[in-house]
Design brief:
This protein is α/β, with parallel strands linked by helices. The protein is built from eight helices and six strands.
């Protein structure tokens, strides 16, 4: 199963919290949380083939253009699943992740999920009935490994087109 991760500037390692205007970019290797996911990815026969990213400020200035470009990159790379996040309690990244995941599900043949903490309540309320949003802890909180494993298990279920309602009740908003 081929997976693409979509990150903000912090998770990608391309910038720090104050570097909001990082342009769109890509890395052909696993970075950020994808590195921590390796044991869980192996269990589901998954491999991160690329990490796409942009600063949350870049996204907020022109969400339609960023979404269009990320969807085009997904169409070109043709992953089985796209994981947007984990966003933890970063509200701007949460908005970006949910919108991008939704647009990928609508405009590409790939399946996409988002992952964030319940601090992103406004975004969760807007998108929880439109896509799968995995529950994560706040940054530095307890339960990250369970969330990362849940992301991988959900990705596999979506890839295999299995029934996911029971999983969603347990791990999603």
């Amino acid at each position: 199963m081929k997976i693409i991760m979509i990150y903000d500037q912090i998770q990608s390692g391309a910038g720090i919290k104050d570097d909001h205007d990082i342009p769109l970019g890509a890395k052909k290797e696993a970075v950020g949380p994808a590195v921590m996911m390796e044991p869980f990815l192996k269990k589901v026969d998954g491999k991160v083939v690329a990490c796409l990213y942009c600063g949350d400020g870049t996204y907020l200035k022109n969400p339609d253009e960023v979404s269009r470009k990320l969807c085009a990159m997904v169409n070109k790379l043709k992953p089985d699943v796209v994981m947007c996040g984990p966003c933890f309690n970063d509200l701007n990244y949460g908005k970006m992740a949910a919108r991008i995941a939704y647009d990928i599900n609508q405009n590409t043949s790939s399946k996409a999920i988002a992952a964030m903490s319940d601090d992103n309540q406004e975004t969760i309320n807007e998108y929880k009935d439109k896509l799968c949003i995995i529950k994560t802890p706040k940054k530095g909180g307890i339960g990250l490994n369970e969330s990362l494993e849940g992301m991988c298990v959900l990705a596999k279920a979506l890839y295999q087109e299995k029934e996911i309602e029971e999983f969603k009740e347990k791990f999603c908003f």
